[in-house]
Design brief:
Layout: E1 6-10, H1 14-26, E2 30-34, H2 37-46, E3 51-55, H3 63-73, E4 78-83, H4 88-96, E5 101-104, H5 109-142
GO cellular component, one term: protein-DNA complex
Modified residues (4-aspartylphosphate): 55
Organism: Desulfarculus baarsii (strain ATCC 33931 / DSM 2075 / LMG 7858 / VKM B-1802 / 2st14)
Length: 145
Amino acid sequence: MKIPIYILIVDDEPDFVDMLAMRLGDEGNKVRTALDGKSGLALLDEWDADVVILDIKMPGMDGMQVLKEIKQKHPIVEVILLTGHGTIDTAVEGLKSGAYDYLLKPANHQELLDKLEQARKRKAEHEERIRQAEALALVRRTGGM
């Protein structure tokens, strides 16, 4: 049984967003969408996504700004950068800023699915390490009782 991935798609191309959301949803994932960076950040504040698929080139707040804010406010949420205007420099900057990975449009759908699953697993591992650290801290504070 497949564990659903909670995915937020942030991209300013409505047709692309609708099609990708439909395909990912049909595969059993939970998908929400936003057509700009500010809306995406607001949605992320109220909905616990595992992975954000983030377009880099958007009017207003661009994807790199959104990525940096996501990593500041929601550090364990994984981000996959997706763009039709990619450069190696942008990829390197995105990865240095905390993105999980980087794909060019049009991305191979199976490759995107694989990266989404890997990113979900990485987030789950981070959450488990946090739970273990919190449990250890609680045991130490209570003297092992």
